[in-house]
């Protein structure tokens, strides 16, 4: 069954931090399926969402090993939480005139959009969960996908709670 | 006050209480070196290869109980440190390595003697820093010492470009460290302590396995109190040796690949393993899936990531060992387990494991026993890696806390000379014996010059078997005796000693051992004894690589199996 874990991490926005994280993944043989990073609501902190396959990787170790990195401020496995997850994809599809209307039909059904049109191709933009993106990709495949880019999943908890209440764990400074 | 980066580094080191640094200069770190004469309390010990500076800082840190410091220049100087940093990383040794770097305008452009040392040491440091501004130096150095010594200790590295060392800035040493993402001391969970105590009280055949964490936490008396109160026998892992008195009636010695037969059998039958400050390393567990098949596990460690990494504990106390044991000892009460003790005793009698056979030949085990007898164990023992290391672990009984200094996790040959330098500097009035392999000795022997220069009275006992002995043993036992690249063509170690102005003694006969050891101890300066021991002696007991502890071979059984 699906054993994918969604992990979010707040990391310091400093040079080399992604390298430190990736180095841990590589060194410990953790298999990361997708990764999305960008700035967060807190200045100086980036927010990462990444997906780990629990069938091949010890998820507990992924969280604990990354937690040891000084630049990782907070990391949580939110898999069991009630969350919203989205991914964005841009798909360049071959679209000769007869195919064009069929493609537009599919795009409408998925509430996707067409963001670029040329003589023989279209760029489709889709936002949704992984299954939705997979589904449209499958339907567009027969027309010929010339190029595709996916952002990887980003996730956020539903309701009023904040995905990772940052102040719950204050650093212990003992020296 | 305004000063250049080199002086700022020295000021910071003095404030951190550093008295010795081990290193070797080069262009990139010259502004740091040139500042040293202004800080007479900061004594720089010149080694002959940077690997030695890291190992010396490591040996120093182990016994001085504070971070060891080493310096190297950029590029090759920094890369020469790598083995020593990795060694400290694997054994959780607090160390601050400071490297010079090419000037900031050359970084990333393959400048002369540029090596991406922060990139290279990423997986073998707790953290590292490339400092791009002189005014950042005090904060970074303060953070570096804090990170190295707190929580689970470990090495850190600070890479400082030449121009940052040469530029002036206002000096101000921060009082506090603010590292938001660094949480070295997890909050102890008293529910887990209660669960652990309950498991201990219910167990019929418990064992304590004490590791390096006990030493790093200086929890000797707490461990002893727990063992004595609960009457649970104590197994000490290789790095746990000297965390519990070797002569204590509850001390069972080492487990694992070359551990005592009775320990491996006891682990196999135990119903509760209490792992304290240890990480269930493969040399300890044998084949993991067969490890302690009947036992529940209680794991005490300061590093949350160690819990559940190799074994799944029934209870885990994630805390500093000292604190954990203080809490635990309150919750337990004495319990007599006569059957269990009788069983362990029976294994001991059946397989004494470390009896030295009667022979007129010069056996390495015998030499080590004689050193033990002569010192009465009141000394620091440093070792290299290989057979001699295992014999030292087996044939020496350490009552003095933290007196066995060995490369456990990385298994670094060549540790024996530079680590002994660090130990002797940290404990100038104590006796230091270094038990060496003839192979490992030759990996770092250029540093004998440093020993001679400072007249460090270290006693080196080379177990000269003319082989890379431990590898030869594997070839003998598991590769039909096909000896590939293990016979050694050695120099004359006595002449070598003399070349450095060090007293050299050769011992070829069993009868000469005692007098040579005594002579070495009487001699005020360094001594190298070349013990020309039996070449093809094997270390037993032994668990074949990849096998389970139940497959422990001890001498009698082995004779049937291999020596036909
Ligand atoms: C730097 C390094 N290289 C290789 C090894 C692999 N190795 C482990 S034990 C050993 C033999 C050590 O020989 P020696 O120092 O003579 O000690 P002995 O085993 O003979 O006591 C070797 C080569 C190692 N541990 N470290």
Question: Mind explaining what this structure looks like?
Answer:
The complex is a heterodimer of chains A (175) and B (564). Chain A is α+β, with helices and mostly antiparallel strands and 175 residues long. Chain A is built from 4 helices and 9 strands; from the N terminus they run βαββαββαββαββ. Chain A has helices spanning 17-27, 59-67, 97-109, 130-140; strands at 4-12, 32-39, 45-53, 72-77, 83-94, 113-117, 121-128, 145-150, 154-157. In chain A, the strands form 2 sheets. In chain A, strands 5, 6, 7, 8 and 9 form a 5-stranded antiparallel beta sheet that branches. A 4-stranded antiparallel beta sheet of chain A has the order 2-3-1-4, with helices on one face. In chain A, a hairpin with a 5-residue loop joins β2 and β3. The relative contact order of chain B is 0.11. In chain B, α4 links the parallel β4 (68-72) and β5 (95-101). Mean pLDDT of chain B is 96; it is low at 557-564. In chain B, α3 (50-64) runs parallel beside α4 (76-90), α3 packs across α17 (416-426) and α11 (261-269) packs antiparallel against α14. Chain B has 3 domains: 2-170, 3-Layer(aba) Sandwich (Rossmann fold), CATH 3.40.50; 190-350, TPP-binding domain (Rossmann fold), CATH 3.40.50; 364-539, Rossmann fold, CATH 3.40.50.970. In chain B, the strands form 4 sheets. In chain B, strands 3-2-4-5-7-6 form a 6-stranded parallel beta sheet, sandwiched between helices. Chain B is α/β, with parallel strands linked by helices. The termini of chain B are far apart. The A-B interface holds A 11-12, 16, 19-20, 23-24, 27, 60-61, 64-65, 67-74, 169, 171-175 and B 118-119, 122-123, 126-127, 130, 146-147, 150, 176-185, 303-305, 307-309. The complex binds thiamine diphosphate.
């Amino acid at each position: 069954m699906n054993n994918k874990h969604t992990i979010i991490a707040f990391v310091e926005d400093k040079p080399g931090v992604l390298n430190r994280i990736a180095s841990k993944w590589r060194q410990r043989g953790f298999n990361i399926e997708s990764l999305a990073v960008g700035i967060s609501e807190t200045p100086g902190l980036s927010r990462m969402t990444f997906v780990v396959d629990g069938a091949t990787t010890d998820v507990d170790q992924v969280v604990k090993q990354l937690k040891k990195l000084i630049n990782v401020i907070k990391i949580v496995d939110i898999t069991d939480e009630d969350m919203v997850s989205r991914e964005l994809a841009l798909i360049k599809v071959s679209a000769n005139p007869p195919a064009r209307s069929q493609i537009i039909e599919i795009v409408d059904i998925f509430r996707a959009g067409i963001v670029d049109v040329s003589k023989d191709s279209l760029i489709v933009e889709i936002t949704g969960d992984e299954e939705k993106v997979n589904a449209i990709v499958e339907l567009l495949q027969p027309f010929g996908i010339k190029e595709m880019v996916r952002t990887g999943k980003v996730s956020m908890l539903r309701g009023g709670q904040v995905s990772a209440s940052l102040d719950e764990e204050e650093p212990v400074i003992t020296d | 006050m305004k000063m250049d980066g080199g002086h700022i580094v020295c000021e910071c080191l003095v404030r951190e209480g550093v008295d010795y640094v081990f290193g070797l200069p080069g262009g990139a770190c010259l502004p740091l070196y040139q500042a040293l004469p202004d800080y007479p309390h900061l004594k720089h010990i010149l080694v002959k290869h940077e690997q030695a500076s890291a190992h010396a800082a490591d040996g120093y840190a182990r016994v001085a109980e504070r971070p060891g410091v080493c310096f190297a220049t950029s590029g090759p100087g920094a890369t020469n440190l790598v083995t020593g940093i990795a060694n400290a990383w694997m054994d959780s040794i607090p160390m601050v390595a400071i490297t010079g770097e090419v000037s900031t305008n050359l970084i990333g452009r393959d400048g002369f003697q540029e090596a991406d040392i922060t990139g290279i040491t990423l997986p073998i440091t707790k953290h590292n820093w490339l400092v791009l501004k002189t005014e950042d130096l005090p904060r970074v150095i303060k953070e570096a010492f804090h990170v190295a010594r707190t929580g689970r200790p470990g090495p850190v590295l600070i890479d400082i470009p030449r121009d940052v060392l040469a530029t002036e800035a206002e000096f101000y040493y921060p009082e506090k460290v603010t590292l938001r993402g660094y949480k070295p001391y997890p909050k102890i969970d008293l529910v887990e302590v209660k669960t652990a105590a309950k498991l201990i009280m219910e167990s019929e055949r418990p064992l304590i396995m004490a590791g390096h964490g006990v030493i790093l936490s200086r929890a000797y008396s707490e461990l002893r109190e727990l063992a004595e109160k609960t009457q649970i026998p104590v197994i000490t892992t290789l790095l746990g040796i000297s965390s519990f008195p070797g002569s204590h009636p509850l001390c069972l010695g080492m487990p694992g690949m070359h551990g005592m037969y009775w320990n491996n059998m006891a682990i196999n039958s135990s119903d509760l393993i209490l792992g304290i400050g240890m990480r269930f390393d493969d040399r300890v567990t044998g084949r993991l899936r067969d490890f302690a098949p009947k036992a529940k596990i209680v794991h005490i460690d300061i590093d949350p990531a160690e819990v559940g990494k190799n074994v799944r504990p029934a209870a885990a106390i994630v805390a500093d060992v000292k604190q954990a044991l203080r809490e635990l000892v309150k919750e337990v009460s004495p319990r007599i387990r006569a059957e269990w003790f009788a069983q362990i005793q029976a294994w001991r009698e059946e397989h004494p494991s470390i009896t030295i056979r009667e022979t007129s030949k010069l056996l390495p085990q015998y030499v080590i026993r004689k050193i033990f007898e002569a010192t009465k164990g009141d000394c620091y023992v440093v070792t290299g890696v290989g057979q001699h290391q295992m014999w030292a672990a087996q044939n020496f009984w350490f009552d003095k806390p933290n007196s066995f200094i060995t490369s456990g996790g990385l298994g670094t040959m060549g540790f024996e000379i530079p680590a002994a330098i660090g130990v002797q500097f940290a404990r100038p009035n104590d006796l230091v014996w270094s038990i060496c392999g003839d192979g490992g000795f030759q990996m770092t022997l250029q540093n004998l010059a440093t020993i001679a220069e400072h007249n460090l009275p270290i006693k080196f006992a080379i177990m000269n078997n003319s082989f890379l002995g431990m590898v030869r043993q594997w070839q003998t036992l598991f590769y039909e005796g096909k000896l590939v690249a293990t016979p050694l063509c050695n120099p004359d170690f006595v002449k070598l000693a003399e070349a450095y102005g060090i007293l050299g003694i050769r011992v070829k006969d069993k009868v000469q051992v005692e007098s040579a050891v005594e002579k070495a101890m009487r001699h005020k300066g360094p001594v190298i004894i070349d013990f020309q021991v039996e070449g093809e002696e094997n270390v037993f007991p032994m668990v074949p690589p990849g096998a389970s502890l139940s497959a422990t071979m001890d001498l009698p059984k082995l004779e049937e199996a291999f020596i036909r």
